[in-house]
Every structure is written in structure tokens, then in C-alpha cells.
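Field notebook, page 729. I keep forgetting to write these up properly, so this time I am using the form the group agreed on. The chain and the ligand, adenosine-5'-diphosphate, are recorded exactly as supplied. Prediction of the bound pose follows.
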Amino acid sequence: MSTLRFKALEQTISRHPLEVQSPSKKTSDYFAINVFNKKRMQEYLSQEAFDSVMEAIDKGTKVDRKVSNQISSGMKAWAIDRGATHYTHWFHPLTGATAEKHDAFFEPASDASVIENFDGGKLVQQEPDASSLPSGGMRNTFEARGYTAWDPSSPAFVMGNTLCIPSVYVSFKGDSLDYKTPLLKSIEAVDKAAVDLCNYFDKNVTKVIVGLGCEQEYFLVDEALFSARPDLKLSDRTLMGHSAAKDQQLADHYFGYIPMRVASFMKEFEIEAYKLGIPIKTRHNEVAPNQYECAPVFEEVNLATDHNQLLMTVMKRVAKKHNFKVLFHEKPYKDVNGSGKHCNWSLITNTGVNLFSPGKTPKTNMLFLSFFVSVIKGVFEYQDLLRSSIVSIGNEHRLGAAEAPPSIMSVFLGEEMNKILDEIETRVSGKKMSPDEKTELKLDVGKIPEIMPDNTDRNRTSPFAFTGNRFEFRAVGASTNVASPMIALNTIVAKQLIEFKEEVEKLIEEGVKKDEAIFQVIKKFILASKNVRFDGNNYSEEWKKEAEKRGLTNVSDVLEALSASVSPSSKEIFAEMKVFTPRELDARLEIDMEKYTKKIQIESRVLGDLAVNHILPTVYRYQNTLIENVKGLKELFSETDFNKLAGTQLESIKEISDRSSVVNIRVNNMIDERRKANVIEEVDVKAREYADKVKPYLDEIRYQIDHLEMIVDDEIWPLPKYRELLFIR
Ligand code: ADP
Ligand code: MG
């Protein structure tokens, strides 16, 4: 066996599960211990400072300079008590990861001693000079300043020895360079629109928050094996590898027994997450071997987004201690399930009403229906925009394949809800409803909670599903910063809610009574968005045909899907809802396309190197062994016997030659195509070249190598195989 592979396998065998000790017995004893939350603020801040932060959180008001000094000093005192020596603005640049630049608290004082310093100015704003982060050309070098600014609505936390202050990241001119800024804007838009509509029903509603619960899927792989796979290391996914004889076909991993080693990793990262206030609730095995899922209790969307990013960081760190690597790539292995991140999304009022919960009284049902149909219509009208928020090079392997995100956007409602919408559609049609009919309808709706079956498991193929009291956006990829789909969803729903209200107002002006007007608009929205409702199998060929008839778009090409973010209708809605300027959208698309190109470039380089330096030399070595064998046979046997005996070897020798020469030729072709593409200046043209000319070689080369893997002696194969990577020992 090749030395590297042998060593890697040997290391995995000697692993023992770590027994993880909880810091204390009850989770509640240490939950959020590293978070500067309300309780800590009350302890460390003056009343004035505390009130000012609360107001900033609730109303988005600015904290004034004098008070910010008080806040920073309280925050510093708390952080130092928690062992922090440094502080950083923690933000979400467009790389998709989080960024931080640590500064020490200490500062030399004039009398040659040092003091711990952190004033209000440093809390509120920083200039990290992060000029290498992507800006899509929005920060020219002459104005290469990007600013981070404190987001008081997400609490500061201590991680390691650093006080982390969640922040937005904007350019000198105020363009957003991150995910958080537009997310906050989209939250504001949907909050305002939702409150306005709620006020038809209840004047006490003054705030509507967006709830988000992310189900995070991931793979684990032993670190030693990971290190022996340059493709996993550099491109986050395997670029070659023949399927294991057994992987997920017996469905014996899903919800199965969690291996000891894995369980102790989970326990430890959960403890670390709890300390940071991340309310992890659920853990289980997923469909593919070595694939798992965890989910927190849902939270306000800005916080939930920060927490999801933070969780991924915590998981990676803790994994190291357990000699694991966590893979968030959407498709690390061919032919087994990929990883997604289902985003459970809802709207909840300050009066405690979940707007997607059908409710008990007829009045609340009208409220529910108004919001419900607005979401469906939003998905229908902005299907392309919504898709553009979840596509990426990683998710491309799932998009359009028989996995959660089909390239056609549709909404699953379940039988009961569809029936109700159909009824409203026919009953109101043509004539006014009698009071009896109205009551009946309302009462029917009122029954939903009792008859509503658990939809969750019936909609595995739907990209966007109603699951009883929330919508589940299932097309999101595992590595995605969820701000992206949340921005899109909040914005399109905000727009629909505004439109809904405008339509009602128009009818009221025409003399229609409010209740009746709302009914009519509900019906109008139902009719307008009917085509997007689909409860069948989203993977089937029939659906593709049917969807086409219904006028739904079907886009599995990433670049095309991404481009929808800058279509006239996208630019218009984002500008109208004050979430993105057209300039910001253009810049983001440019960044996404560049990212796409670079990822293919990396994969292509890695595969080329592996093919030429790892695979072909191994293959030739084995071929030489066969040649020696054949020569020996020839010496020993008569020609007739030889022809009988050496047939298989001769075939293998030939197949190896055939396949390796194809590999060689394709690698060279691929390099040529890369060279040609690299000189292209226009970002979109270059990305297209990479997609059409370079990327196809990845599969072609892999195909040959995977066949060679099956011929060549296992002893000398240089890379850990799928059957080794996919099972934890
Ligand atoms: P399932 O796999 O059945 O979809 P999970 O328990 O794995 O369910 O995850 C469901 C996620 O949805 C959790 O994060 C949960 O907190 C979240 N959730 C539940 N109710 C709501 C809601 N009203 N709004 C947003 N998220 C919700
Ligand atoms: Mg789910």
C-alpha cells in the first residue's frame, strides 16, 4: 500500500473516542456564559447605557458617542473577566466566511506602563483595511477603505481570548460589502410591511420579527484520511474516487446509531455552542454514511444567521480536537447524498402571533391567509430571484440532480392547505359569499391545526415547503451564508405584503367593506400564484414538462441562475425595498462569478496535478508488473497455453494504456482551455468559458481515473478510497 495511504489508515485505527466532560451538570448553568447578553449588560452597564442599547436593538436608533464610551467600558470589563485580551469586529464579508482582525486591549501609557483600553469609538466603528476582501470593484484603491460598524442587535461574545463584536461592513461611500447590511435592511422592509398589514387586524402589533431555524447538514471525515486527499484539502470535495460497494443503499445510516467518536465530537461542539448562546436542539445521522445534521431552536433571523456562521466555525475548531474534519461542501462525494441547510422561516408579531400559524379564531385566520398567500405569490413572481440567492458552484451538484433543490422553484402546501385555497378560489368566484359560507370557510380554516398532518416528511423533493407553521426553504446549500436566501425571501415577501395592502385599500376606496376586500385580495393572490403550487415529485420528468406548461422557469446552469439577481425586476424590487442599489447588485454578481471561476480553476489544477503526479505513475507501475508477468508466462509456456493464460493481463495492460492516454490528453486539453480563459478580462465571459470549456474535463478525467482505480492493485493506490473515507472507525 502506498506509504501515505497506509499511514493515514493506520492512524484512524488507533483513534479512541474522547470522553467529553460537561463544564457543569446542567446546560442552563453555562448557556450563553460567553455572551454579553441582556443579563450581563444589566450587570456591567449603567442604566443609561443599558437603555440606549435596548433602544438601538428595538428601534434601530443610533447610540450616541458619550453613551458608547460607557458601553465599551462595560463590555471591556465583562470581556476581561471572561479572559479576553483582544477584541475584534466580527463580520461577514462576501467570501462567505466570517472575518476578524484582532487588536489587543492593552496600550502603552505615557508613564511607560500599559493599560487596558477600549473606548466607545473602537466599539462603534473600525477600519480594518481589509483591502483584499472581495468588493466587486466597489472599492477602488484610491478609496480602499472599508468600515466595520457595530450591530447592537446581535450580542457581542467572547471566543477564545477575543471579544467579538458582530458588525456590518461597508465601503467609504456606504455601499454594503457584506451579508449583514442588506440582511438588516431586508428585515426592516419586511417588518414595516408586515406591521402595516397586521394593523388591519390588530392595532397592537408594532413589530414583526423574522424567525429562522437552520438545519445544518455536514459530513465528517477522519483528519488523517482527509490530509491524504489533496482534492478534499484544496477544493473541499473529492474529484475522483470509485463508489464504495456499500454506501447509502440500505438506508441504515439515516437516524441510526451515532458512532461513539462522532457522538463525543457532537457533545463537545454543542457545549461550546451553548456557551456562545447557540441553542442547538437536534442531532441525528443523515442519509449518506458519515453525514450528520444538527439544528438549533429557531431565533430572530439576524441572530440566527450570526449563530449559524459561528456554529460552523465552532464545529471546525472542535473537530480538530477529535481528529475530524467537517465538510460543509454541498457535494463532497459523488453518488451519495449532498448536504443542504434547510431554512425554516416565519414571521412573528410582538404580540406573540406566528403569522403562519392558522390560529383559532376566524379573524386570525384571515390574517394568516393574507400572509400565507402573499408568500406563495412572492415565490411565484420572483422565482428567478429566489433561485439566484441559493446557487453556487457547490450547490450546482445538487441543483437539478435528484436532491432537495430542483432547478424549478415550486411551493409545497400539503393536501389540506391546497384544499382550503381551492375552496376560497371557487367560492368567492363570481358572487359574494353568504355570511354562512364565510363563517363556514373561516371555521374550516380554524380546524387546520387539528387536521394538519406533519408535512415535514412528505415534501422531501420540494424546494420550498409549508410545514404547518412556517415555510422551509430547502434548496439552500450547506455552506451558504443564510443571509443570502433570507435577504431574498424577506424582500419579496415585503413587496407582496405592500401590494396586498394597496389592493385592499383600492377596494375599500371603491366602497367594498374591509373584510370583503381582504377576502377578494386573498382570492386574487391565490389565482395569480396558482401555477407555483406543486405537491408531486419534483424530481420527475413529468414535472419538468408540466412546469414548462405552467410557465415556470427551469434553470440548472449556475451562471444563468446567478444572473437573475441583476435582472430589471430584481434591481427594481431591491431598490424599491431599499435593500440593494443596482450598483451593489452588479458588484455582488461580479464577485459570485469570480468565485465560480476561481473554484473551477482550483479544482481543475488539483485534478490535473493528481492525475499526472499521483495516478498515472501508479498506474504505469502496475502496468509494468503485468508486463513482467506476461513476459514470464511467455518464457514458461507454449504459445497456445500462453494465449490462454495471459489474456486477462494483456487486456488490462491495454486498458491501462488506453485510459491513461485519455487522461493525459484530457489534462493537457484542460490546461490549454484554462490558458485561453485566463486571458479574458470580462468577468462574465471568463466564467462562461470556465463553465463550458474547462469544467467538462473534470468529469471526463474522473471517469477514466475511477475505472483505473478498479483495475490497479489496491496495495499501491495512492489515495484513500471512498470505502475508507466514508466510514468512521
Ligand atoms: P424537521 O427535520 O422535521 O424539519 P428539525 O427539528 O430538524 O425539523 O428542524 C426544524 C427547525 O425549524 C428547527 O430549527 C426549529 O426550531 C425550526 N422551527 C420550528 N418552528 C419554527 C417557526 N415557527 N419559525 C421558524 N423556524 C421554526
Ligand atoms: Mg426539515
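OBSERVATIONS:
- Residues 211-213, 215, 282, 295-298, 344-346, 354, 456, 469-470 surround adenosine-5'-diphosphate (ligand 1) (CB under 6 Å).
- The chain has three domains: 31-178, 187-235+245-580, 594-725.
FOLLOW-UP: compare against the apo run.
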